[in-house]
Design goal:
Pfam family, one: HisKA_3
Number of domains: 3
Strand order of the largest sheet: 3-4-5-7-6
Catalytic activity: ATP + protein L-histidine = ADP + protein N-phospho-L-histidine
Mean pLDDT: 79
Structural class: alpha+beta
GO molecular function: ATP binding; phosphorelay sensor kinase activity; protein dimerization activity
EC number: 2.7.13.3
Enzyme class: transferase
Low-confidence stretches: 1-10, 429-433
Distance between the termini: 51 Å
Number of helices: 10
Number of strands: 7
Strand content: 5-15%
Largest sheet: 5 strands, mixed
Order of helices and strands: HHHHEEHHHHEHEEHEE
Length: 433
């Protein structure tokens, strides 16, 4: 049996670093607790005035600002204390002010936020001030002997009752009292602060009822998006068939009919019409193949997601490197959605990124299909309503998929897709078959 030991200096250094990191975060937490008091007062004052309409903007503004305060606290507790607190919010309601107010009132997270603020500006304020005061008392105890040298009539006692008349005695008291304060801050203050962070996690985290409500809302929205997307896809197929293949097939029938009529009287003209008919039949077949490829590409069915993305890479104007590590194949609907998501990302790179190379990685992590598309372009990519990535986001939402975009100005841009699914072993054709 082997044991791995961690040097004491490393653990001590990490502990000290964590203490000072938390000390730096206490001050914004204190400010947030005071801001929470202001929002709480605005909310309480605005509620009775809602019926006079003048209180509506106060209440709505206080609710929105309190969401922001709570989200800032969630960030601090995650970064500084390792406490993950999800955001139990429904999307911000749309419509007129009265409808917005009604929807916010029905959202349990609204009342949970203000309940937490009532705790935060009372108990939280005490916790944060005590934490700061313990360390401040330790520092003050060590500084006071030097202040006594300059102002002996002012700084001649500790806490108003421990008197001294010499620098040595003052320094002795300072070391003892400062040490006591420091130990209290180091041990008790740390326990108090971390305990309060866990309390914040309990009070701000979504309960089972809120999670269920949010899940119902998400499923309702994703179902509506899926229905809209399917309807739009059917309209596109109908339009493409009507404007493309159908028109060519009509022209094909007309050419064949005319050729039949003049076959005996003018064989050369009939031959020309037959040639045009052959061209129209080829063009119609090509358009139908393109249409089928847009619905469910044959290469996806034949070679799986990795092979289909490699085919996209070969047709892309930029060099695209594809790395695939899948022990099986996702369900066909997931595979199709993932393929078109990658296709959309590659299209955006070609149109807007001004990149010189692209990397696509496909893998399976635990229970999730993960795909990243990374380019070395100019960055600044965003999801615009009604745009391609917005459509991908709504399409993947039907599978509980998540789209993440990291694109700072100057690049690089990384588009990541995560879709929960189970892999199965399905036959895929190899390049030799």
């Amino acid at each position: 049996m082997s044991h791995t030991s961690i040097p004491i200096s490393q653990t001590t250094g990490a502990r000290i670093g964590r203490r000072f990191k938390q000390l730096g975060l206490v001050f914004p937490l204190l400010g947030l607790s005071i801001a929470g008091l202001v929002m709480f007062v605005l909310f309480v004052v605005g509620m009775p005035l809602v019926f006079l309409t003048v209180g509506i903007p106060l209440v709505v503004g206080a609710v929105g600002a309190t969401r922001g305060l709570c989200n800032a606290e969630r960030f601090i507790y995650r970064v500084g204390f390792g406490v993950e607190i999800d955001r139990p919010y429904r999307p911000w309601p749309k419509g007129n002010v009265a409808k917005v107010l009604l929807e916010l009132a029905k959202d349990a997270s609204t009342w949970r936020n203000f309940g937490w603020q009532a705790v935060n500006f009372t108990l939280g304020f005490i916790v944060f001030v005590t934490y700061i005061a313990l360390l401040g008392g330790a520092l003050m105890a060590l500084i006071q002997p030097f202040l006594w040298l300059g102002l002996p009539d002012v700084f001649d006692t500790y806490y108003g009752f421990i008197s001294y008349d010499s620098f040595a005695l003052a320094m002795t008291y300072g070391v003892i009292l400062g040490g006591m304060n420091f130990v209290a801050w180091w041990v008790g203050g740390d326990a108090m602060l971390n305990g309060y962070a866990r309390l914040a996690g309990v009070m701000m985290r979504a309960n089972k009822s809120q999670k269920l409500q949010r899940r119902v809302v998400e499923l309702t929205e994703s179902r509506a998006d899926t229905v809209d997307s399917s309807a739009a896809e059917l309209r596109r197929i109908e339009r493409d068939l009507h404007d493309g293949a159908q028109a060519r097939l009509v022209a094909l029938g007309m050419s064949l009919g005319m050729a039949e009529e003049i076959l005996t009287s003018d064989p050369q003209a009939a031959a020309k019409l037959l040639a045009e008919a052959r061209e129209n039949s080829g063009a119609a077949l090509s358009e139908i193949r393109d249409l089928v490829r847009g619905i469910h590409p044959p290469v996806l069915a034949d070679r799986g997601l990795g092979g289909a993305v490699e085919a996209l890479a070969l047709a892309h104007p930029l060099p695209v490197t594809v790395e695939t590590n899948l022990p099986g194949r996702p369900p066909e609907p997931v595979e199709s959605a993932a393929y078109f998501a990658v296709a959309e990302a590659l299209t955006n790179v070609a149109k807007y990124a001004q990149a010189t190379e692209v990397f696509v990685r496909i893998g399976y992590f635990g229970t999730r299909l993960g795909i990243t598309v990374r380019d070395n372009g100019r960055g600044g990519a965003t999801v615009t309503p009604g745009g391609g990535l917005d459509g991908v986001t709504r399409r993947l939402a039907a599978f509980d998929g998540v789209v993440t975009i990291r694109s700072e100005p100057g690049g690089p841009t990384i588009v990541a897709y995560e879709i929960p699914c189970e892999l199965t072993v399905r036959p895929s054709l190899t390049m030799d078959e």
